[in-house]
């Protein structure tokens, strides 16, 4: 109450903020957001979520920089999935139907939902191994006729 009255009366002390440490610019650089894998799962999760969306926590997978988005702690048994080797990680990740499961140095898991590649393409992490597959659209005869009419 006293502080509010001092402010209202214009008598509150003014302490200027020091210039050192007054910005977040240093942490917002992409090169500062690389994932350090020698950490427990909670620290990995906090790192990924703390850099979600800008600049994005990243690592190298198959020689390509991949940025992780949308992590959550996973407190369950190890799910079934296809192994994915991640540079620097002590254990391969698992591409599952729900996303990419990564492991902390404590053996606990983090689920990552989305991945973005260097070219800007973003995919659900669960589709990592099917990202290059494309299916051709096949039209029925009736649909082909409609397409021609539209042209």
Automatic annotation (TrEMBL):
Domain Formyl transferase C-terminal: 29-130
Membrane-spanning parts: none
InterPro entries associated with the record: Formyl_trans_C, Formyl_trans_C_sf, Formyl_transferase-like_C_sf
Highest taxon in the source lineage: Eukaryota
MF term (GO), any: catalytic activity
Gene3D superfamilies registered for this protein in UniProt: Formyl transferase, C-terminal domain
Alphabetical list of SUPFAM superfamilies matching this protein: FMT C-terminal domain-like (SSF50486)
The protein's name: AL1L2 dehydrogenase
Species of the source: Helopsaltes ochotensis (Middendorff's grasshopper-warbler)
Taxonomic lineage of the native organism: Eukaryota, Metazoa, Chordata, Craniata, Vertebrata
Gene name for this UniProt entry: Aldh1l2_0
């Amino acid at each position: 109450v006293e502080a509010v009255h001092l402010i209202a009366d214009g008598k509150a002390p003014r302490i200027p903020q020091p210039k050192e440490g007054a910005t977040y610019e240093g942490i917002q650089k992409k090169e500062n957001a690389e994932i350090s894998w020698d950490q427990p799962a909670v620290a990995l999760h906090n790192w990924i979520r703390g850099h979600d969306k800008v600049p994005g926590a990243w690592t190298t997978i198959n020689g390509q920089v991949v940025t992780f988005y949308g992590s959550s702690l996973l407190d369950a048994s190890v799910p079934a999935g296809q192994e994915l080797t991640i540079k620097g990680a002590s254990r391969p990740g698992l591409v599952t139907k729900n996303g990419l499961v990564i492991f902390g140095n404590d053996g606990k898991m983090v689920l990552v939902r989305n991945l973005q590649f260097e070219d800007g393409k973003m995919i659900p992490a669960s589709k990592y191994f099917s990202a290059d597959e494309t299916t051709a659209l096949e039209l029925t005869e009736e649909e082909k006729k409609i397409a021609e009419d539209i042209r």
